[in-house]
From TrEMBL:
GO terms for molecular function: ATP binding. Residues 22-268 form the ABC transporter domain. Residues 277-314 are annotated as: Disordered. Residues 292-301 have a biased composition (Low complexity). This is ABC transporter ATP-binding protein. SUPFAM superfamilies: P-loop containing nucleoside triphosphate hydrolases. Coiled coil: none annotated. It holds the Pfam family ABC_tran. Keywords: ATP-binding, Nucleotide-binding, Transport. The keyword Nucleotide-binding applies.
Amino acid sequence: MTTDTTTKGATPGAAAPGETVLDARGVTMRFGGLTAVRGVDLTVGAGEIVGLIGPNGAGKTTFFNCLTGLYVPTEGEVRYKGAVLPPKSFKVTAAGIARTFQNIRLFANMTVLENVLVGRHTRTKEGFWSAVLRGPGFHKAENASKERAMELLAFVGLDHKADHLARNLPYGEQRKLEIARALASEPGLLLLDEPTAGMNPQETRATEELVFAIRDMGIAVLVIEHDMRFIFNLCDRVAVLVQGEKLIEGDSATVQGDERVVAAYLGEPFENAPGAEEVAEVEAAEAHAEATAEAAGARAETTNDAAPGKENDR
């Protein structure tokens, strides 16, 4: 499909036209003796929407976690705008990469506005003492963050529900809120992990239009999705992972016409394909590693925030 790459209302993190935003080279992730992702190369350029598909257990979310600092790849490297990314999720966000999750991770007992303000965290320069003393600089930054958060809520169509608790939103609107929160960090690259999971056709179409609008803001997008109609309508390029390896990459027509892709989705075994027990071991290892990485990241971010003079660290 042909997409309009004109940037409208570009965000501060938007990349220059033609710039390579993401460059993943030889990314491999092992959990003990199990290899979940093996030697994957992938690039995303400014103004592009790139899809990542594959059967269940193909390693898509593990690869996402390697890109966003939740996992440190066993081998390979990930570059954002030419710089190697630090192996910490909050530092990756600060660098300019934001993501959503397959399972919605909102602060259920916070308001819609407060959830988006959390996403502004990495772009707020006020530190510990500024927050304690609440001087003019703190109030100016707070007002600016609220103004930007309301702009993003209007962008996703939730500004009229700014004071509602996140837990009271319908499922589709919770997905929109998670995207707004990710956009609040002013990313140059947005990673979406199954953004239409559980949605009806109308919600899926609305999500498609929203992703196009995000692209038009100058933000590159990498998306995992199981809805093939959605992914092929949306993306400029699509990469297919099978058993942790990239099988093929190309435009929608090329990928849909590849017999190996059809075979993978029909469940036909490849040479040396892992059995069910091995797949289950990989999935269990991934879940444990993700939980451990998230807990460590949360502790590190809390420590970083609480340190006096934090405003001088950014």
